Amino acid sequence: MAATPVLSIQNWACGYLDEPIVKDFSFDLEPGKIACIVGSNGAGKSTLLRSLFGMIKRFSGELRFFDQPIENMPAPRRMAMGMSFVPQGRCNFPYLTVEENMELATYTLPKAEAAIAVQAQVEKFDILERKWKDRASNLSGGEQQIVEMAMALAVSPRLLLIDEPSLGLSPKMRTDVFAKIKSLADDDISVIMVEQNVRGGLNISDVAVVMDLGRKIMEGSASEILNDPRISSVFLGGAPKEQAP
Amino acid sequence: MTPEVFVEVLINGIAIGSVYALFALGLALIFGVLEFVNFAHGEFYMIGAMLISAIMIGTGVNYWLALPVVVMASLVAGVVLYDVFWRRLRQGDYEKSILITIGIALILQNGALYVWGPTPRLLETGFTTSVIVLGDLVIPVARIVAMSISFTVLLLVYLGLNKTRGGLALRGVAQNRAAATMVGIQLHKISRVAVGVGIGLCGLSGGVLALIYTIFPTMGYILAFKAFAIVIIGGLGSLAGAIIVGFTLGIVESFVTLYMSSGSMNMLVFGAMIAVLLFRPLGLFGRQLRL
Amino acid sequence: MRRPASTWLVLLLLMPALALPSIIESTYYMSIAVTAAAFCVLSVCLNLIYGYVGLLSLCQVAFWGLGAYATAILTAHHDVSIGLALIASGIVAVLASILVGIASFRVSRHSFAIASLVFALLLQHLAYDWTSLTRGAMGIPGLPVPELAIPLVGRVAFGRAHDFFYLMCAWAIVTILFVRMIILSRVGRALVAIRENTSLAESHGLNVFRYKLIAFAISSFFTGVAGGLFCLFISIADPSVFDFYYTEAMLVMVILGGAGTFWPVIVASIVFTFAPEFLRIGEELRLVLYGALLVAAMLAMPEGFAGFVKMRRRKRQRTEFSEALAGKS
User: Fold this and answer.
1) Which among C132, C58, C112 has a CA at the least distance from the CA of B263?
2) Which DSSP string do the residues of A157-181 spell out, in sequence order?
3) What's B91's domain CATH number?
4) Best residue in A52, A85, A93 to probe B by mutation, most B CBs within 10 Å?
5) How many domains does chain B have?
6) In angstroms, what separates the C-alpha of B138 from chain A's closest C-alpha?
7) Cα distance from A36 to chain B (closest Cα, Å)?
8) Using the beta-carbon criterion (under 8 Å), do B176 and A80 form an inter-chain contact?
9) Nearest CA in chain A to B167
10) Which chain C residue has its CA at the smallest distance from B282's CA?
11) Which of A81, A95, A108, A151 to mutate to test the interface with B (most CBs of B within 10 A)?
12) Tens-place pLDDT, residues B68-86
C-alpha cells in the first residue's frame, strides 16, 4: 500500500432518522487526489458528504482522517483537524460584506493567524479584493461560490468536501469554478466532490465513485468511469456535452 | 400646545420609547438567532420590575446597586431558559417553543401574583418625584435617568454586535446557520449568548420602566401586546426595525394619549400591525435591516 | 382510519351524562359541568384549527369573548331575541376570524401566532376601554334567561345550572358532530394534507388559503356562539371573558389530550375542568400548575397523551419485533 490515505471510510452507514440512508460504504482517498461522487438524485451523495463532516447521524462504520479515528468528533473538531466543507446551496452570510464573511471564515483561528490566512486567500482569488466591501448577497451566483470556496480554504484544510459546486452557475462560471478546484491539488489539498454535472466533474477528478440507493456500486479512475458505456447511458443520457438540466 | 408642553411630551415619549426599544430589541435578538418567539418576554420584564422593587425594599440597597443585580439575574434566567428548553428543540419546532414559553409565562405571572399579590406598587428611589426646572420647562428626573440608561445600553449592544468577533458570529448565525456551522461557529454557544442578552435586556427594561410606571404582576401582559406589534411592524428578527418602531411608538403614544384614550391608541397600534401584515408582510424595513 | 360509527358510539356512551342534573344536587358542581361542556366546544374548535390544520391560534378566546359581548349587547341593550343574538354572535366571530385570517395567513406561522395573540389582547383592552359600548370593567349584567318552547313539555326556562346544562350540552354535541363531520370529509383530508406539507398540498392544486380560512371561520363560529351561551349562563358579560386563562386552559386541554386526535381532546377538556375544582387550589396556583403541565407535556410527550400511548405501543412492538429477530438468528 502507498501513502496513508487522507480519508479512509470503512463500512459507513449514516442518515437522519431511524433508517440509514447510506449503507455499507467504504472508500479510501489518496493524498492530493480529487474524488468525484456521482449518482442519480436521492442516491445519498449529499447525505454521505454531510456525515463525513459530522453534521448528521452516523449509524455504524469507521472514519479515519490521516489515520486518526474521527467518527465521534463534532464538526468544529473535524474542522480544526483540517477538514473543510462547502455545503450545497448558498453558504455565505448574505447581509455581511465579503470582508466580514472572510473574517467569520477564520473565526476558529487566533486573530493574528486569521489575518494572514485571509490575506492568502485574497491573493489567490482576485474577486475578493474587487468585492471586498460589497454584501455577499449582491454578488452573482458564481462569485458567491468562489467566496464560499475561499471561506472554506481560509483555514488551510488538508481535505475539502464540496457539494454541487457548479449548481446554478453559468457555463463560463462553471469552468472557472472547476479550474479552481483542479488547482487545489497543487497546494496538496485533497477534495471529495459531489457533482450532478457528471462530465464536468469527472473531467477534473482523479477518481470517481458511483452511488445508487445509498450504496457504492462502482469505483475507478475518473476517465474509466467517464468512458464506461454503462455509466454514460445512465447518467450522461448520451448527451454530447452537458448533462440535461 | 405651548412649546414647553411640546418638549415635555416629546421627552416623555423618547424616554418611554427608549425602553420599548430595549424590550423589543431583546425579543428581536432572540428571534433573529433562534427563529423562536419568546411568548414569556413580557413576564421576564415584569419579573425584572418586581424583582428590583423586592430587592430595594428587602435589602434597602439603592437603585444603582439593585439594577445590575436584576440584569445579571435576567441574564442567568435567559441562559437557563436556553439550556433547559430551547436547546432541545430543532429549527422549525416553533409551535412547541411557543407553547413552552406560554407555559413559562403562566408560571411566572401567576407565581408573581401568588408571591406579591395584585396590588400595584411604586418604586421608591431617591429621585422618584424630583424634577429639573429649566425656565418654563419641567422635566422629571426619572425620565432622564431612564433615557440615559436605555441609550447607553443600546449603544453597548450596537458596539457589541458590530465591533466584536462574537457579535459578528452572532450576526452570522442569524443569517445562515449552515454557513455558521461550516466556518466552525459553535451554534449552541452563540445561541446561549443571544438568549442571555435578550432576556437580560428584557429584565433591564423592566427595571428601568419601573422608574416611570407603577408595577404589578400583570404588567407584562400589557406591554407584551405592544412589543409583539412592534416586532411585527419592524419586521421579525430586524433589530433596527425593533428600535426604530419602539421609539416611534413611545413618542406617538406620548402625544396621542393627550387627545385619545389608551384604548383608541391600542386600536391604532393594532391597525398599524394589520396594515403592515397586509401590505409589507416582512415588516416596514423588510430584510434590509436584518441582524 | 375512517370510523364514523365511533362518533355515535361515543355519544351513546356519553348519554348517561345527561342524567347528571338529576343526580347532582349541588349547583356549584352543576356549574362546573356547564363550564366543562363549554370547554368541550372551545377545545374541539381549537383542535380543529391547531390539531388538524396546524395553525396555533391564540385568539379563540377573542371569538369567545366577542360572542359573549355580542349576545349581551344585543339582548340587554337592543331587545333582540336570544336565538337571533346567539346566531349574530357566531357571525361576529366569523367576521373577526376572516379579518385576522386574511391579514396573517399569507405571512408565516410565527406571524399568525403573534397576530392572533395581539388580536386577543386588543379585544380585552377594548372591553375595558370602550365604555360607551361595553360599560368597561362593570360589564353588562342582568342578561335575560333563555326560554324554549319544547313540544309536549311546554315552555322551559333555562335559569338554573341544572337546566342550562342541557342547553350547553346540546351546543357541545352540535359542535362535536359538525366538526367530526368536517374532519372525516374531503375538506378534513385536505386540512391534514395542508398541515403535513403545505407546499405539496399547494402543488396538488389545493387552495390552501381558502381551506385555512374555512377551518378558521368554522372554529370561530362555534366558539362565538358558545361564548354567547356562557354569558347568558353567568348572566353577565365583562372583560374577564377575554381572559388569557381561557386560552391557557384550552391549550392545556388540546395539547395534553393530543392535538390532532379527536376524542382524547374532549376527555381532556372534561378532566381539566373538573380536576382543579377537586384539587381545591387557588386560581393562581392552578394556573402555575397548568403552565408546568404545558411545559412538561411539550418536553415529555409532545404528541399529547394519546400520542404518548401510541408511541409507547409502537416502541414496545418494535422491541418485540427485534427480540423476535434476535431469537431467530
Assistant:
1) C132
2) -SEEEEE-TTTT--HHHHHHHHHHH
3) 1.10.3470
4) A93
5) 1
6) 44
7) 20
8) no
9) A104
10) C107
11) A95
12) 999 999 999 999 999 988 8
Report chain B residues whose CB lies below 8 A from the CB of C111. 232, 236, 277, 281
Contact A94 B176 (CB under 8 A): yes
Q: Confidence class of residue A243 from pLDDT cuts 50, 70 and 90?
A: very low
CA distance B276 to chain C (A): 9
Alpha helices in chain C (DSSP H): 5-14, 20-23, 27-46, 60-72, 78, 82-104, 109-129, 131-134, 161-184, 186-196, 198-203, 208-234, 244-257, 263-279, 283-300, 304-328
Dihedrals phi, psi of A218, to nearest 5 degrees: -160, 150
- Within a 13 Å sphere around the CA of A59, how many CA atoms are in the beta-carbon half? 17
Do the chains contact at A91 and B165, CB–CB below 8 Å? no
Locate C29 and state its grid cell: 358542581
pLDDT for residue C314: 60
Please report residues of C whose CB lies closer than 8 A to that of B109: 287
The ipTM of this complex is 0.78
Distance CA A203, CA A221 (A): 11
With an 8 Å Cβ cutoff, are B168 and A100 in contact?
yes
Lowest mean pLDDT across A79-93, B27-41, B260-274, C166-180: B260-274
- In a domain, residue B172? The reply is yes
What tens digit of pLDDT does each residue of A100-146 get? Answer: 999 998 888 888 888 888 888 888 888 888 888 888 888 888 888 88
Q: Is B290 within the bounds of a domain? A: no
Instruction: Quote the cell numbers at residue C293.
Output: 403541565
Candidates B171, B182, B186; nearest CB to A96: B171
Q: What is the pLDDT of residue C5?
A: 63
Q: How many domains does chain C have?
A: 1
Q: Minimal CA–CA distance to A35: which of A24, A54, A48? A: A48
pLDDT tens-digit profile of A21-45?
A: 888 888 888 888 899 998 877 788 8
Chains touching chain A through at least 3 C-beta pairs below 8 angstroms are B
Q: How many CB atoms lie within 10 A of CB B127?
A: 13
Closest residue by Cα to residue C87 from C229, C263, C292: C229
Domain carrying residue C144: 5-328
> Is there a contact between B184 and A55 if contact means CB atoms under 8 Å apart?
no
Q: Do B263 and C106 touch (CB under 8 A)?
A: no
- Is B291 among the domain residues? no
pLDDT digits (tens, 9 = 90+) for A143-159: 888 888 888 888 888 89
Chain A positions touching B185 (Cβ under 8 A) are: 76, 104, 107
From chain B, the residues in CB contact with C276 under 8 A are none
What pLDDT is attached to residue C1? 45
Are the Cβ atoms of B228 and C282 closer than 8 angstroms? Answer: no
User: Would you say how long chain C is, in residues?
Assistant: 329
CA R_g for chain B: 19
pLDDT in tens, chain C (329 residues): 445 567 777 777 777 777 777 777 777 878 888 888 889 999 999 988 888 888 888 889 999 999 999 998 888 788 778 788 888 899 999 999 998 898 888 777 777 888 888 888 888 888 877 777 778 777 777 777 777 767 666 677 677 777 778 888 888 888 888 888 888 888 888 888 888 777 777 777 777 888 889 999 999 999 999 999 898 888 888 888 888 888 888 888 888 887 778 788 888 888 888 777 777 677 778 888 888 888 888 887 666 666 666 666 666 655 555 555 554 44
- Give the Cα separation of B274 and B265 in Å (integer): 14
d(CA B28, CA B35): 9
Q: Nearest 10 degrees: CA dihedral of A25, A31, A33, A34?
A: 50
CATH of the domain at C68: 1.10.3470
Residue B274's domain comprises 3-279
Answer whether residue B100 is part of any domain. yes
Q: Strands A215-221 and B131-134, how do they pair?
A: unpaired
